[in-house]
Specification:
With 113 residues, the chain is mostly beta strands. It folds into 2 domains: 1-39, Single Sheet (N-terminal domain of TfIIb), CATH 2.20.25; 59-112, SH3 Domains (SH3 type barrels). The protein is 8% helix and 32% strand. The protein has one helix at residues 35-43; strands at 16-18, 21-23, 30-31, 46-47, 53-54, 60-62, 66-67, 74-75, 80-81, 85-86, 93-97, 101-105, 110-112. The strands form 5 sheets. Strands 1-2-3 form a 3-stranded antiparallel sheet, with no helix packed on it. A 3-stranded antiparallel sheet has the order 9-6-13, with no helix packed on it. The chain has a 3-stranded antiparallel sheet with strand order 10-11-12, with no helix packed on it. The protein starts with 15 loop residues before the first strand and ends with a strand. Residues 46-112 form the Protein YjdM C-terminal domain.
Length: 113
């Protein structure tokens, strides 16, 4: 038997290698041996409503009318936001919106341009 590690997702011992990937036949999880350094980065990955990975400096579009607390107006669908900054927390996008100022948005309400 080979000396392959257990699956990091389901802890199955029946893993096998396929080229540079290790695969778990029970849960279908695929990973590389360098997964030890990538686990901390996976927790900080921010994705938009379509599943695209967001990065600092990206431009996004708001996909839903959003009420703004303390304001009588709302952010309309299709509003473009440039130069976002990713932060930790519930609202994981920090940005400035023309006409509104500094805002914190949830990534589930934006789409990457």
């Amino acid at each position: 038997m080979s000396n392959l590690p257990n699956c990091p997702k389901c802890n199955s011992q029946f893993t096998y290698d396929d080229g540079s990937l290790l695969i778990c036949p029970e849960c279908g999880h695929e990973w590389t041996l360098e997964v030890g350094t990538d686990n901390s980065e996976d927790k900080n990955v921010v994705k938009d409503a379509n599943g695209n990975i967001l990065n600092d400096g990206d431009s996004v579009t708001i996909i839903k009318d959003l009420k703004v607390k303390g304001s009588s107006s709302a952010l309309k669908i299709g509003t473009r936001v440039k130069n976002i900054r990713l932060v930790e927390g519930d609202h994981n996008i920090d940005c400035k919106i023309d006409g509104f100022g500094a805002m914190k948005l949830k990534s589930e309400f934006v789409r990457k341009l």
